[in-house]
Amino acid sequence: MSKDAKPASHRIDQFHSGPGARADHWRDLVDAAKAWAEGHGDRAKYEALLNDIAVTEEFHGYPGLQLMSALKESAASGDGATSLALSTRIAQALTTRSFRQHVGDWSLHEDGEGGVPDLLPPAFGRTEAHRPYFETLIVTGISATSWPNLASEWRRLRRPMDAFVYEPVIVGSLEDAFCAVILNPNLAAVVVNEGFALRSRHDAPVLRTLTSLMEQHEASDASALRLAHIVKRVRPELDLYLMSNRNVEEMAGNPEADVVRRIFYSVEELLELHLCILEGVQDRFDTPFFDNLKKYAQRPIGTFHALPIARGKSIFKSDWIRDMGEFYGPNLFLAESSATTGGLDSLLEPTGNIKDAQEKAARAFGADHVFFVTNGTSTSNKMAVQALLAPGDINIVDRNCHKSHHYGMVLSGAQPLYVEAFPMTEYSMYGAVPLKTIKQALLNLKAEGRLNKVKMVDLTNCTFDGHIYNTRRVMEECLAIKPDLIFLWDEAWFGFARFSPFLRPRTAMGAANDIEAWLHDPKSVAAYEKQQAELGKNPSDDLLLKTRLIPDPRKVKLRVYQTNSTHKSMSALRQGSMLFVKDVDFHTVEAQFHEAVFTHASTSPNQQLIASLDVARRQMELEGYGLVANAMEIAFAIRQAVNNNPLISKYFRILGADAMVPAQYRQSGFVDFLTPGVNWATALKSLQDDEFCLDPTRMTLVCGTAGFDGTQFKGILANRYGIQLNKTSRNSVLFQSNINNTRSDVAHLVRVLAEIAGEIDRGLKKGGANARKTFDARVKSLMTDVPDLPNFSHFHNAFRGDAGTKTNEGNIRGGFFAAYDAAGCEYIRVADSDIDRRLKSGPDLVSANFVIPYPPCCPIMVPGQVITQETIDFMRKLDVKEIHGYDAREGLKLVTPEALARIGGAGRPSGAAKPKAAAAKS
Predict the structure, then answer these.
(1) 263 φ, ψ to 5°?
(2) Is residue 823 a contact partner of residue 811, using CB atoms and an 8 Å limit?
(3) E strands, 475-588, where?
(4) Residue 115 buriedness (CB in 10 A; 0-12 / 13-18 / 19+)
(5) How many CB atoms lie within 10 A of CB 575?
(6) What pLDDT sits at residue 209?
(7) Mapped to the 3 state alphabet, what secondary structure does 826-871 carry?
(8) Of 74, 684, 601, 124, nearest to 89 (Cα)?
């Protein structure tokens, strides 16, 4: 939003207002102070901005009560010069984050004098040892006039030997506590005293929308335990402490108090509470494997094992490869080892610090168990599929999922029953699989008496292009049909979402925890029985498809698995992945999981990669909330800058939620994050209710309207401007913001797009009518003359085995190994007329390979699939350069009709009917 377009009142409740918005507000205040001090501005405007800021600054440790009071006093006395000087220093300290270590930022005067006694801890600001800084929220019922004294009492607890330093943030009501938890990413602990008020002491409209995020029964209950539950739901990573002057023994025995780390009686042990706060942060800060690896690297080690690079002597003593050591530094080589002893551990069978690190990751991500994986989520997916599915088991799977799921079924011998995502033909991409399609597949299997064969539902969340499932609804409705289904959610791109209270419920682990809580709620059985009475004894499939089904909580077995590419959205090295488990029957498959680990994991895993997984968990537990909020804010800034710029938007646009998610799946009526009037509450309603939502950090930029196909535009950005991106389509490219991005990155991207748009504009004006005609024809070919997206057709009868007539599952393993018979395979080029002849007259064209355009690495053909005209049409118009499983010189690899006849003799008769539902379509 441009400066001229900013509302008079800061809208902190806007969904895209994150940490950067706070800095913007302070810069606005500095601008107003400067105008006032220089005599060409309005003092009233400065005071109005200061009053707006003051409301929400109470929720932050810095600048704190003293500096905010000084700002108000200088404004009230008409001292514009002091107002400018102090607001400038505060704004700079917030931007650079120097207040975390620099003593002068906390004082009233620039020379560092004038600080409040006890404001600064011993050793604060010294350079010899960096101590991480955080803030602790204190919720209290005492009068606000006593808060400065209370803050001083907390500061006096600080000691030079403390590993961390923290600043208290004091509030006096449930509403203000909730707002602080939402707005302050620096919080690491919350202390809740009894006796606080319900309502905020501020009559500020901007706070009302925030507090509306709480459920109604929560917003009217000002008990300490209720507040603890609210905080834990919003920020589960925070440590909670209760201080009570009542029967603390009874409260400690209450199962509802499980969300609290420790309960104290009144204020009798304030130092003990201080130590507990530090210990809680230390628990999250500890990285068992990384800590031990650092110690190992400092030990004198004699290496007589198969890793010459360890300790680096072969590097640093070399005249020829010494530059490698100089580039990476000595620690990389000192920390390399093939050993699993001496303070290290085995990834294959962890019993020490890797085991401890995985347990910490399980806590951080809401899982029961975690496996660290060092060769990517491709391996995590194959491990899960291999461990959970046996030969002949049916897996209901998104046809457009990553290739690793398909290869996993080749390994396990499971039969994929492909379900189709809704198409986005205009942009040559697929969305996500509608729940109705998944339910129909289950109901078809049930009608044929084969429901017992389906073991898993396997989906991608979010999709490459950002479509997020309503994970809880999908699992609950599927469990209503088959209560022991296993769910595998490939969240390769979505691992960061755990640390956003808005996105967390849509993650696999977030939804699984919510379902688990519902299963233990006594009201769940009543809700199920009420719906059963309404449905009747034999409800029709049509009625079941239209109804939001409730599972029987007495029969449900909650079995949920989630994989994520930690390296894609967190600070882990490439190929770092985690596999999360929340499965009540995990003990029945644990041995199989270990076999899958032995199958896929290297016996020589990279130590640095394991350490980076450990460190990534630490970072997300301690600062992930703020980092994710910033990544989302960066994405919104890019969306606004591109779509609101008159020149850029002539040729480029970033698609909003309304373009990416069809209206039928946005039941709440939500349009887009940037629609005027949208705030956190309206966005939350969409995230709670809609079948699909859009991940705000994934931005599809349409470049076909500028005359570029996706591959061409990707190359221009990379080669001319050093801008890297990942996925392309026929007429778009995909940008992704992450925790590494800054607003400088936004400025660079916007400048580049403006430059390219300007070049197009000038070229069209200079080239006249002919240039415009050529340009329009190019745009039409990219935006209008697009091929239909091919759905999965069906497996050839030779690979159908005992499949039913209503469903399209097949033996993908048999199709895959049919390609190993060279004599039973043939090649035909895609452009060859023989393709068209056989499509029209037969015999069937049956793929012998996976054919996988990269990116996004989702197959358009699988082994054993009958190839249709729409698939060939799509192949002929495909514009990506890298297509795995297809060699343009030889053509498509097909199973010959003769080989199919031989294979068919051992399976389903060659004349058997094709499935009635050749593909489960939306």
Answers:
(1) -115, 135
(2) no
(3) 486-490, 559-564, 577-583
(4) middle
(5) 18
(6) 63
(7) EEECCCCHHHHHHHHHCCCCEECCCEEEECCCCCCECCCEECCHHH
(8) 74
Question: Residue 211: which H helix or E strand, with range?
Answer: helix 205-211
Whose structure tokens read 């460190």?
A: 615
Q: How many CA atoms lie within 13 A of 455 on its CB side?
A: 18
Output the CA–CA distances (angstroms, integers) from residue 340 to 302, 605, 615, in the order listed.
14, 11, 19
Q: Say if residue 380's pLDDT is above 60.
A: yes
Residues 193-212 have a mean pLDDT of 76
CA–CA separation, 661 vs 605, rounded Å?
A: 41
In three-state secondary structure terms, 476 is: helix
- Model pLDDT for residues 501-512, shown as the tens digit of each residue: 999 999 999 999
Count other C-beta atoms under 10 Å from residue 770's C-beta. Answer: 8
pLDDT digits (tens, 9 = 90+) for 141-191: 999 999 999 999 999 999 999 999 999 999 999 999 998 999 999 999 999
What is the pLDDT at residue 77?
A: 94
What does each C-alpha distance from 644 to 20, 635, 732, 741, 754 come to in angstroms? 19, 14, 18, 21, 12
In one-letter notation, the amino acid at residue 355 is: K
Give the closest residue to 499 by CA, choosing from 570, 558, 561: 570
d(CA 244, CA 232): 19
Can you give the pLDDT at residue 303? 82
Q: At what angle do helices 147-155 and 64-76 cross, to 10 degrees?
A: 140
| Cβ neighbours around 9 below 10 Å, total | 13
Give the CA angle between residues 539, 432, 516 to the nearest 5°: 60
Residue 97: C-alpha distances to residues 62, 281, 621, 832, 846 (Å): 10, 20, 19, 64, 61
Alpha-carbon separation of residue 598 from 165, 349, 377, 904 (angstroms):
44, 9, 16, 35
Each residue of 796-816: pLDDT tens digit? 999 998 777 788 899 999 999
